[in-house]
Structure prediction request, 116 residues.
Amino acid sequence: MTRTNSKRKTVTRSRPAKAPAKRKSPKPQVPTGAASTALTRSGTKNAQVVAMLSGKMGTTIAAISAATGWREHSVRGFLAGVVRKKLGLNLVSEPAESGRVYRIIDTPADRGKQAA
Prediction:
């Protein structure tokens, strides 16, 4: 025969309150144009590449790769992820005799030339 222990007290343990879930903050507004180049520190490879792209003639992936020591796929990733998305710059590419040339266009007049 088994006995039931009717004198047993039920103990309720209080759990510590959970902290409210952290909410992700909205993406910060990225300035466009000349103000966005201020986001890159001077003297870095990123600043060097942005300066190469900002020139009137632009540059090729091979030239960026030679200047920075990055491989071609890393240069393409930098162009897409940093230049276009993070810095918000208008990067255009055009075919040329020496290969595809990439450059940053800032002014609306330059953008009109590209669209035509």
Observations:
- The two ends are 96 Å apart (CA to CA).
- The longest helix spans residues 72-86.
- Strands lie at 59-60, 91-96, 99-104.
